[in-house]
Specification:
There is one protein chain. With 176 residues, the chain is of the alpha+beta class. It has six helices and six strands, in the order αββαααββαββα. It has one domain. Strands 1-2 form a two-stranded antiparallel sheet. A two-stranded antiparallel sheet has the order 3-4. A hairpin with an 8-residue loop joins strand 5 and strand 6. The longest helix has 22 residues. The N and C termini lie far apart (39 Å). The structure holds zinc ion. The site of zinc ion has 7 residues, from loops.
């Protein structure tokens, strides 16, 4: 899975009509991102960025009303936040004079700023990249996942979502 979709998938349906968020606590973010110095301030910024990325994914897939819709932001706000976060950590190419001559990218950012910029950049590269054509919002009831179709017939993010959708359709038909 691409880094952008991994990031978006940190929030998902909890099986009881609500959402589960891997980034709901500082410890959760530290475990997910493999970063030591996580503060509550950084966590809030990462979560805000995640909703911005999900807002762009929702737009790109024409996802309708879903469980996470109340968290989403207008396109301009989401785009600005993602672009601005990526731009905050400029990198410089640095030549290291040892054989073989080596190129390293360096920046002056803190670990937290680097994490934010890396996640924003991954989202930009993903949405502007070739995979976008096969990007879908899973249409199963309550599912909030996005996925890239692995084959043309794929309709659901995973088989269990297809089963849930069939059961739901059957239930509604039986009631009509
Ligand atoms: Zn699904």
């Amino acid at each position: 899975m691409s880094r952008a979709l991994e990031f978006a998938s940190t929030v998902r349906h909890n099986g009881h009509g609500g959402l589960t968020d891997d980034l709901a606590t500082v410890a959760g973010l530290a475990a997910w991102a493999h970063v030591d110095a996580v503060s509550e301030e950084l966590r809030l910024r990462v979560v805000e960025l995640r909703w911005a990325v999900r807002s762009l994914l929702a737009r790109a897939t024409n996802a309708g009303e879903r469980l996470d819709t109340p968290h989403l932001m207008p396109l301009d706000d989401a785009l600005h936040l993602v672009n601005d976060t990526s731009a905050r950590v400029p990198r410089a190419a640095r030549l290291e004079w040892e054989e073989p001559l080596r190129l390293r990218y360096v920046d002056r950012a803190t670990e937290g700023e680097r994490l934010l910029a890396e996640l924003a950049t991954a989202a930009i590269e993903f949405l502007a990249g070739g995979e976008r054509a096969d990007l879908r919002a899973c249409p199963a009831p309550r599912c909030v996942r996005y996925f890239v179709k692995a084959h043309p017939q794929q309709q659901w993010c995973k088989p269990s979502c297809g089963n849930r959708a069939r059961v739901s359709r059957h239930y509604h038909k039986a009631r009509d």
